[in-house]
UniProtKB/TrEMBL annotation:
Extent of the signal sequence: none
Residues carrying N6-carboxylysine: 150
An annotated Gene Ontology molecular function: hydrolase activity, acting on carbon-nitrogen (but not peptide) bonds, in cyclic amides
Pfam families cross-referenced by the UniProt entry: Amidohydro_1
Annotated source species: Amycolatopsis sacchari
Residues spanning the membrane: none
Protein name per Swiss-Prot or TrEMBL: Dihydropyrimidinase
Record keywords, A-Z: Hydrolase, Metal-binding
InterPro entries reported in the protein's UniProt record: Amidohydro-rel, Hydantoinase/dihydroPyrase, Metal-dep_hydrolase_composite, Metal_Hydrolase, Metallo-dep_Hydrolases_sf
Length: 461
């Protein structure tokens, strides 16, 4: 089965070239000068369009248990929405509950995901119970293709780890060449501020932002970097939102430390003004770290250009406004943390290209190529080259669309980007050679997506 994508501009981190792409079964067979091949079983005309490697969203939470409920997208609905938005790989998080093992956690997440995904998927492991057995099990996880471990300096009593526990896990990461991913917010200090706000009768959503000041993200980021330096572990800061945290990452990188960071579209486009919307509307924007003052956004765009921010992921963790965000009406600390976004990352970052904030090459690099290398999927994913999986997006840079909950495919009753006018639109998506999205609709199927056993980080020399 051969598919020929003709006439498009093929994108990579170095920019675009006019080229044709020949797909044989599940893989890219050739990238040629235009016109070298002219027949195939299927010919897709990409004239005037971009042809880019499928997006890789390295940070999603499908059906994640949180605050007494579950994030609203299942692996089926969430990966289908991802496909619609040009994302052909997700890396989701298996969540170790305290008192349980990493291996049983991984089994559980395979049960949820296997056979239910529309696109390929991998897992990171959230470590919330550090002990001798857990540390030993990190090796089993790595052998099972889970080579990155997320830890939390926030959420005391739930996912939180002490500095000592983090140090021990980092020692294990150093020993095994695996990566520690850090949710860097000072949760101990934050919990005091939250208790004080609630005690003085301040329960509205904006308090979520006011009680999690950016300095406490900066402090935790610096502390995580110091622990990584002491142990020699590679460190990846997740969902970086604050200028102070970015400065700490930039300084560590300039000193040669293996420190990496991602940001998310919500921190580039939304702000604490959204959290402060009247009534309970702000609950739609409650996620941690919180949306920041607008002044942080220019720093984040700069970080994307300088590579101090190497990856854009979504932290997709949707909770419905009507019945889930509602759990925290009157007490912001009970609003489930997280926002929907897996469907819109490619489009939103393309606006950065349109606005001149980042180059076309940087768009592809931050949304596909770097996440592939960061999490051990390259060159199978993240590039259009002979032998790579044919995960390919045909993107129309001139199309116009308006984002809305009315038209999105995520299983959540609101859009954080309602009414956003977007230049550019996904036209066709191939996942391992199969057309899963086209102008005539979704033609994929749950069960098409396969589990990706990952190598270690490919930036460690
Ligand atoms: O608010 C968020 N980000 N929810 C998802 C869990 C996490 O911390 O990434
Ligand atoms: Zn987090
Ligand atoms: Zn630098
Ligand atoms: Zn997350």
């Amino acid at each position: 089965m051969r598919t020929l994508i003709k006439g498009g501009t093929v994108l990579s981190p170095t920019g675009g070239v006019l080229a044709d792409v020949l797909v044989q079964d599940e893989q890219v067979a050739a990238v040629t000068a235009p016109g070298v091949f002219d027949t195939a079983d299927t010919v897709l005309d990409a004239t005037g369009k971009y042809v880019l490697p499928g997006g890789i969203d390295a940070h999603t939470h499908m059906e994640m248990p949180f605050g007494g409920t579950f994030s609203a997208d299942t692996f089926e609905t969430g990966t289908t929405a991802a496909a619609w938005g040009g994302t052909t790989t997700i890396i989701d998080f298996a969540v170790q509950a305290k008192g349980t093992s990493l291996v049983s956690t991984l089994d559980k997440w395979h049960e949820k995901a296997d056979g239910n995904c529309a696109v390929d998927y991998g897992f990171h492991m959230i470590v919330s119970d550090v002990n001798d057995a857990t540390l030993k099990e990190m090796e089993t996880c790595i052998d099972s293709g889970v080579t990155s471990f997320k830890m939390f300096m926030a959420y005391p009593g739930v996912f939180y780890s002490t500095d000592g526990e983090i140090l021990r896990a980092m020692q294990k990461a150093r020993e095994t060449g695996s990566t520690i991913m850090m949710h860097a917010e000072n949760g101990i200090a934050i919990d005091e501020l939250v208790a004080q706000a609630l005690a003085s009768g301040k329960g509205e959503p904006v308090q979520h932002g006011l009680t999690r000041p950016s300095a406490l993200e900066g402090e935790a980021t610096s502390r995580a970097i110091t622990l990584a330096q002491v142990t020699g572990a590679p460190l990846y800061i997740v969902h970086l939102s604050a200028a102070e945290a970015l400065s700490a990452v930039a300084e560590a990188r300039d000193s040669g430390q293996h420190v990496f960071a991602e940001t998310c579209p919500q921190y580039l486009y939304l702000s604490i003004d959204d959290l402060a919307k009247p009534g309970f509307e702000g609950a739609k924007y409650v996620a941690s770290p919180p949306l920041r003052e607008k002044r942080h956004q220019a720093d984040l765009w700069r970080g994307l250009r300088t590579n101090d921010l190497s990856v854009v992921s979504t932290d997709h963790c949707p909770f419905c406004f009507k019945d889930q965000k509602e759990l925290g009406r009157g007490d912001f600390s009970k609003i489930p943390n997280g926002m929907p976004g897996v469907e819109h990352r490619m489009d939103l970052l393309h606006q950065g290209v349109v606005a001149g904030e980042i180059s076309l090459g940087r768009w592809v690099e931050a949304c596909s190529t770097t996440p592939a290398r960061m999490f051990g999927l390259y060159p199978r994913k993240g590039v259009i080259a002979p032998g790579s999986d044919a995960d390919i997006v045909i993107y129309d840079p001139a199309a116009r669309q308006t984002l809305s909950a009315e038209t999105h495919h995520m299983n959540v009753d609101y859009s954080a980007y309602e009414g956003f006018e977007i230049t550019g639109k996904v036209e066709t998506v191939l996942s391992r050679g199969k057309v899963v999205v086209s102008p005539s609709g979704f033609s994929g199927g749950t069960g098409h997506g396969r589990f990706l056993s990952r190598e270690k980080c490919q930036y460690l020399n």
